[in-house]
Structures are given as C-alpha cells and as structure tokens.
Amino acid sequence: MALLEIKNLHVAVDDREILKGIDLTLDAGEVHAIMGPNGSGKSTLSYVLAGREGYAITAGTIRFQGKDLLAMAPDERARKGVFLAFQYPVEIPGVAGMTFLKTALNALRKERGAGELDAMQFLKFVRAQAKRLEIGDEMLKRALNVGFSGGEKKRNEVLQMAVLEPILAVLDETDSGLDIDALKIVADGVNALRSPERAMLLITHYQRLLDYIVPDRVHVLAHGRIAKSGGKELALELERKGYGEFLGEAA
Amino acid sequence: MASSIDTRERLQSVTDQAYKYGFVTDIDTDVAPKGLSEDIVRFISARKAEPEWLLAWRLKAYRHWLAMPEPIWSHVKFPALDYQDAYYYSAPKATDGPKSLDEVDPKLLETYEKLGVPLGERALLAGVAVDAVFDSVSVATTFKKKLEEKGVIFCSISEAVQKHPELIKKYMGSVVPYADNKHACLNSAVFTDGSFVYIPKGVRCPMELSTYFRINAAKTGQFERTLIIADAGSYVSYLEGCTAPMRDENQLHAAVVELIALDDAEIKYSTVQNWYPGDVEGRGGIYNFVTKRGACRGRNSKIAWTQVETGSAITWKYPSCILQGDNSVGEFYSVAVTNNRQQADTGTKMIHIGRNTRSRIISKGISAGRADNTYRGLVRILPKAEGARNYTQCDSLLIGDRCGAHTVPYIESRNPSARVEHEATTSKISEDQLFYCRQRGLSQEEAVSLIVNGFCKEVLQTLPMEFAVEAQKLLGVSLEGSVG
Ligand SMILES: Nc1ncnc2c1ncn2[C@@H]1O[C@H](COP(=O)(O)OP(=O)(O)OP(=O)(O)O)[C@@H](O)[C@H]1O
Ligand SMILES: [Mg+2]
C-alpha cells in the first residue's frame, strides 16, 4: 500500500480550476520533488493535502495510509502525521516558539497514546534538534515567527518538523530565502529525518537543493497537471532548459 | 419550609416597627425581608453591632443614593434595575436556587469539569444549598498564624469594624467617597461582606493574600467592601476571585475596593472575575458594577491592578489610581473577554497629582459572539504633576464578525512637562493563524486559546504564577464555541 495516493485530483478556488487532474503516489521512505513555474498550483496542492479551507475538491481522491485524507479535519491530519512546512510561515504574537512546539507535540502525543513529555525531557529534546539547525535558545523564547528573518522562519519550520516527527512531510519552498550556509544546514536537517517510514514531498524552484537532498522522483507541475516525471536528472534538465516546453500548452 | 416564611413575616413586622421602638437585635434569624429602605440599612448595621458613626455613614449614603441618577455614560444596555426586588441581608437560600446539581445549567457543569474544579466545590459554586466542609478552612488557620507573627491584619470587614475601628474610621470612604457613584453609594449603605487588610510599616507580607479561602468558607456577598492599607515601606499582593464560574441568585453585584499605599509601600491587586455570564442569550447573568480605586498617598508608593475579566453578563469596572505621592506609580493590566451576549465596559483612571508620577495601562479586550467590549480610560495630569508620564496600550481582538470592540481614551494634561503616550490596535484572529496552528495538530479550540493567550501575554505575566496558569485555561474555556 502506498503511503500517499493522489488520484485525478481537481481543485478549484472561487470557481477557477487550479489543479486539473493530479495523479501522484508516494511510498514510505521516498522523497519526491515537485518543481514548476510560479502559479502552477504547487502551494495549492500542499494546502489541499493539509486541509486548508477555501479549496473546492471538484473531483478525485487522496488516500493517506489507505484512509480518505479529504474526510479529515486539518488538525486530525496533522495528528495522523501530515506536516506542512509553509512557504510563508505565520506569525503568532505573544506565543513563544517553545510554547508552540510543546502544545503541538503534546497534541500529537495524545493522539499517539504517548503521555505528555515532562518539561525537562521536552527541553532536552528540542534543544538537541534546535542545535542541529543552529537555532539558539533566544529564538525559541521569542514570539513565533514574529520579526524572524525569512531564513529564520524557514529553519524554524524544519525544527518543527524535526520535533513533530511526521510521517508525510510536505516542504513548500523551504529552501527559498536561505543563504548558502543555511541551505546546507536545513538540507542536513531534512536528510537526518529521512527514514524508511517517512515520505517527503519537496516543492522547490532550485535544482541546488536537490544536490543536497537527493530525490527519488522529480515531477513538473504545470498548469495544474503533472506534466512530466522522472528521476533526479530531470531537475538538471529543467535547470538547463527552463519550463519553456511546458508553458506552451496553456489551458 | 413553613417556618422560614413565618420568620420572614415576623421579621417584616419587626422591621416595620423599627422606627417606633428602636431596633430589636436578638432576632434568631439571618433573614431580612426583600427590598431596600432605611430600616434595612439600620437592620444590617444592628445585626453587625456596628458603632453609631458607621450607621450614620450608611444612612447618609442611603439618603444620597435615593436621589442619585444611574450612571448612563457607559456602553452597556440592560433593563432598569428593580432595587426593591432583592434581598440586602442574607437572602434566604435555596428558595429559587437549584436544589441539586441536576437542576444546574449543564454547560456550567461542563465548564467545572474542564477547569478541574474539585467535585465537592461544584455544588457550592453553582449556588446549590449545601453544607460543605472544605480543607481550606484548616489551611486558612495555618496562614492566619503566620500573618499574625508579622503583625498583618487580614480579616472580614465586619470583624475589622469591631476590632480596628480607628483604622476603618480613618480610611473607609477616603478613597471612594460614599457619593462617588450610584453603585458605590448603594454599597456604602448596605455592604455586608468583604475583606480588610493592614500591613504594618516595613513588613513584606509573607504570602499572597487570597479571598478564595474566605469565599469557600462563607458565601461571598453581593455588596462586598474591601479595604487594604499598606503602611510605609510595606508590600502586599492580594488575589481576588477564582477561575471557576460562580452562580449567584443576586443579579446585581456592587462591590467597592479601596487601596491605600503610604510612603514607599506597594500593593499588587489581582482579580480573576468569572461570575456566571448567563446562558448564550445572556439570561440570568450577573451585573458586575464595581468601584475599585487605589490611592498612592505616599512618596514612591506603587499600586498595580491586574484583572482578568471573563464572567458576568455586564461588567462595569474601572480600577483606578490616584497618584498623590511624588514619584508614585500606578499600573493597570487588564484582560476582558466577552462572548455570546456579554457586555463589558472597563478600563481605568490614572490621576497624576504628584511630581514625577508614572502610570502604565495595558488593556487587552477580546470580543466574540455578539458581545460588546469597551475600553474606557482616563489619564489626567494635574498642574503640579511635573514630569508625569503615562503609557497606554489598548489592544482589541475580534473573533467573528458580529461582536464589537471600542476604545474610548480620555486624556487631560494640564502640565506641559508631562508625557502621555497612547497606542491602540484592533485585530482579528486570522484564518492563517488558525490554520497554521491546526496544521500542527491543535484543535480549533486549542488554537483559539493559544492565540488569545499570546495576545494577553503581557497581562497574564503580571499575575502570580499559579493564578496565571488557571487564567490561561480559563481564557480558552471562555471562548469555546466562538469560532466556526
Ligand atoms: N485563495 C486563492 N484565491 C484566488 N486564487 C488563488 C488562491 N490560491 C491560489 N490561487 C491561484 O492559484 C494559482 C496557483 O497558486 P499556487 O500558490 O498554488 O502556485 P505555486 O505553484 O505555489 O506558485 P509559486 O511558485 O509562485 O509559489 C495562482 O494563479 C494563484 O493566484
Ligand atoms: Mg507556492
């Protein structure tokens, strides 16, 4: 059984069809990359996976671990192991990053039947993960994403992923806005999370990321469809040729 | 219950006669007839064996009250109060109140469950007539001993009238005069309950003083009167209320709180107010019309109010500071939550009289459902308040689009060297924030609670630790069902 199975997915926003029949299958342990021009529907796909309101599913199905993902509320999906690293992480004034992480982790642990971590265990665990991503204590004390630089926000998303240990992680342009060193740090963080039970969907514009996180498959999303799929060499090809060949067939 | 009706009738005749024959004090009941009259005022005073001057003061207040208009300037609406349709001294219990927990609004019980209120206390809080014995009684006794060692006086106001009349006479009504406003005036005439605190010179009160113990031991009054005096160089932190929603048959609550800080003294007064707000349509909720004021009489004195107001159908309350002493400091930290049909008109007054007086106002208003939430604040700088400074920050958070938030600041500065800063924001809980939280596994309600707690952080962190934890939970519970 595939971990994630998207079939013939059609999605409309305000009566405008944005995804026009997506088919995509991820097995546990796999990392797939999705590339594609601006506005082609990549973030839309990530939001639909996470269950954001405002997207009308006009046709198709999504199965996660064999279950109907579309029937689940966003928080239920999260507790079942679906994680989205946001392209634009949201600011939550007054809520320290540490508090946020703790609340989220406890919500997940409750679902998984594990008890709440005590304060010391939690602190130790988060600090260890944060250190890898070169996130200091003072950042964890600050209000979540408030006044964070673009790169800090992205690193913080990866920290949340590391702490919450999802089964399916969707990373929407987590590499955008990172300097070269930060890209390396984040990529190492993501690689550390690769595991036989976990699948990842990397949305990116840059082949460079895929040098660090080598994907099993690469898909090109254009005009709401998967226009081409291939191995990691497809990314290199795109880097050379651009999206020209996919842009002609506008709907 | 035939006997209690008997008693009431007998009492009625007794009070009717009181004028002619003077007052009979050896009545074996604690019940006064319904309604308000000069006789009732005399009755209350007599039952408490009060000195003549206090009765005179009560009567002066009562007569003044009769002619006094209701305050009409606040942004709250409610039908006119029928003052004759209420009891002013120990209303007979369990006549119209619920007889058992089965008769209590199930929503209320659910809330107790969520807040983790011990089973034994739920009936009492819900207004069911019970004879409950609380552990807190023995705890209170232990505390009392510790306080005595330091010379701290902490007792009911009635006890203080008997044991410390000179302090009562000197300070009661000195911050909130009996004629201050209609509600305070009524309180002055008929107050029956409340706390008295005196901290001697140079003493740092060894523990947080909490009314919670007292409330459990004796049902809290409708017309509470609290007086706290911090003598030179002393410090006290006082906690009022509790997070569990309390039911009360009395719709009108008109409390008065007076604080006095002498030279270098500091008083920190924290409130969590969670009186029954009524059902979703607002039926049956409490009208909480409170007058709270502190006088920083001494140099370098400080008074800080923190309030978390989540209950009551109507909240009308402006804890204020009169900054008389040079270099004195007034602070007001407020969270006011209104949901469903609740209305709150709350804020503060900072009156700068002395030199270099400073005040700080942080107000967080949260409105949901069809509720209305108003911040009303006055900053007044008098001509002699050289170098006075005020900073005010008023933030409103709206949940949904049927509620209202209003900010009404009044600033009067009569000293050119003074600096007054005012900042105000209004925001909504955004869909983006909710979705972000839910994507991390938080339920809708957990998400609202987290975001609201973040919004209120600056205020909550001024609360004593264990109170803050309870208040955080309370905010979440108060807003349940407020989002889609
Ligand atoms: N809520 C919305 N309302 C209106 N249009 C929307 C909404 N969400 C997405 N769209 C439109 O859908 C299309 C796909 O947007 P999406 O954000 O999925 O693109 P993307 O592939 O992630 O682009 P980028 O590479 O720039 O991030 C765009 O034309 C966008 O304007
Ligand atoms: Mg995008």
Characterise the protein shown here.
The complex is a heterodimer of chains A (251) and B (484). Chain A is α/β, with parallel strands linked by helices and 251 residues long. Chain A has helices spanning 42-50, 74-79, 97-111, 119-132, 137-141, 150-164, 180-193, 207-212, 233-241, 244-247, and strands at residues 4-13, 16-26, 31-35, 56-64, 67-68, 82-85, 92-96, 143-144, 168-172, 199-203, 217-222, 225-230. Chain A has a 6-stranded mixed sheet, with helices on both faces. In chain A, strands 2-1-4-5 form a 4-stranded antiparallel sheet, covered by helices on one side. In chain A, α6 (150-164) packs parallel to α7 (180-193). Chain B is α/β, with parallel strands linked by helices and 484 residues long. Chain B starts with a helix and ends in a 6-residue tail after the last helix. The chains are: A alpha/beta (251), B alpha/beta (484). The A-B interface holds A 50-53, 73-75, 77-79, 83-84, 86, 89-95, 99-100, 103-104, 107-108, 111, 143, 160, 164 and B 430-433, 435-444, 446-447, 450-451, 453-458. Bound molecules: adenosine-5'-triphosphate and magnesium ion. Adenosine-5'-triphosphate (ATP) binds next to α1 of chain A.
Helix-strand layout with pairing:
The complex is a heterodimer of chains A (251) and B (484).
Chain A: E1 4-13, E2 16-26, E3 31-35, H1 42-50, E4 56-64, E5 67-68, H2 74-79, E6 82-85, E7 92-96, H3 97-111, H4 119-132, H5 137-141, E8 143-144, H6 150-164, E9 168-172, H7 180-193, E10 199-203, H8 207-212, E11 217-222, E12 225-230, H9 233-241, H10 244-247
Parallel strand pairs in A: 3-10, 3-11, 6-9, 9-10
Antiparallel strand pairs in A: 1-2, 1-4, 4-5, 7-8, 11-12
Helix pairs in contact in A: 6-7
Chain B: H1 2-21, H2 38-47, H3 52-67, H4 106-115, H5 119-125, H6 136-150, E1 153-156, H7 157-163, H8 165-171, H9 182-190, E2 195-199, E3 209-210, H10 212-217, E4 225-230, E5 235-240, E6 252-253, E7 256-261, E8 266-273, E9 287-296, E10 302-309, E11 314-317, E12 320-323, E13 329-338, E14 343-352, E15 358-367, E16 372-381, E17 389-398, E18 404-413, E19 419-428, H11 431-439, H12 444-455, H13 457-460, H14 465-478
Parallel strand pairs in B: 2-4, 3-5, 4-7, 5-8, 6-9, 7-9, 8-10, 9-11, 9-12, 10-13, 11-14, 12-14, 13-15, 14-16, 15-17, 16-18, 17-19
Antiparallel strand pairs in B: 1-2
Helix pairs in contact in B: 2-3, 3-9, 7-8, 11-12, 12-14
